[in-house]
Amino acid sequence: MDEYEVPETHDTLEGITPPQLTLHLRGHVAERAFLADALARGKLHHALIFEGERGIGKATAAFHLANALLSGNVAPGEGTLPAPDPGSPVFRQIVQGSHPGLLYLTRPRNDQGTGFKQAITVDEIRRLQRFFGMTAAGHDSWRVVIVDPANDLNRNAANALLKLLEEPPPRSVFILLAHGTGGLLPTIRSRCQVLKFAPLADGDIAAIVSDQLGPAADAAMLDRVAALGGGSARRALLFARFGGLELQEALEAYLEAPQPDVAKAHKLADVAGNRKSEIHRDILRELVLDRLRSEATRAARQGRLREAERIASADMAIQDRMRMADAYNLDRKQDFLTLLADLHDLLSGTRSG
């Protein structure tokens, strides 16, 4: 389906099939069956939260649901949410972002046009007024809104969306994608039906990576990245295709050394500080947080509860620091150098303790 041109978003992975184009949704059997049954019986809630970790298929499920609603492709007794028909006009319009019955809200481009903003702003939510004010193709046509992810809504945007959820337009469906369980206003959650999407099985992840990489993916590599994926196909693809394995090895070599290696730290910080390679910075950030969480878990299992609490507090502080670095456009290389030094000191203290 190379003839389709999908609009770029803040989390587009070059060379990887985006959710709009993904025909086969792996896993989530119960969730797909629930949605198919609700559609067939006319009992679909007007506002849904698809909740689960990043990169497990929530966006793909949302676009499958949108295709089913806007094409009328729902039959009683279907048993599962139908896959989109790639030959249909509805599918083509959805992929190209031109279907009048679908509005896909994600982070907008920044004012310079060089990247994307760090949040979904209230201006994006205001687009809904025009969207719902347009004349539908038919009196019984659906209007579908996908917010990806709802965690990125800033406060003003979240409050503006809440007003629409409180008084939804007729025949409208809001699908809010939520990474994890936090970051949403309780008042928004209370007006939505929450579907919890579980992490993917290693076999499903390996199949997804194999589909994306083709012959370049051997069995040993698939097993390794599936295990490292931690239930997320996106994460596994970052390891398999975007240098995640090499970055993990470099980070571990730095952290395991008895003394901080300045040269190794600078090599890692050069990657994190490269503004032309956001994806590698994101991989390094995830690796840092993963290491902290694994250390905290290990300490807790060994009964070192005070140490586990100290590492967990460091985890939260580093996440706050990452958000602040993004918000205030800090020097990325210097910020990551400082982070690496602090992390090495923390883990050295853990090993010596």
TrEMBL record:
Tree of life domain: Bacteria
Keyword Nucleotidyltransferase belongs to the record: yes
GO terms, biological process: DNA-templated DNA replication
EC number(s) per entry: 2.7.7.7
UniProt keyword terms in alphabetical order: Nucleotidyltransferase, Transferase
One Gene Ontology MF term: DNA-directed DNA polymerase activity
One GO location term (cellular component): DNA polymerase III complex
Record-linked PANTHER family: DNA POLYMERASE III SUBUNIT DELTA, REPLICATION FACTOR C / DNA POLYMERASE III GAMMA-TAU SUBUNIT
Protein name in UniProt: DNA polymerase III subunit delta
Record organism: Oricola thermophila
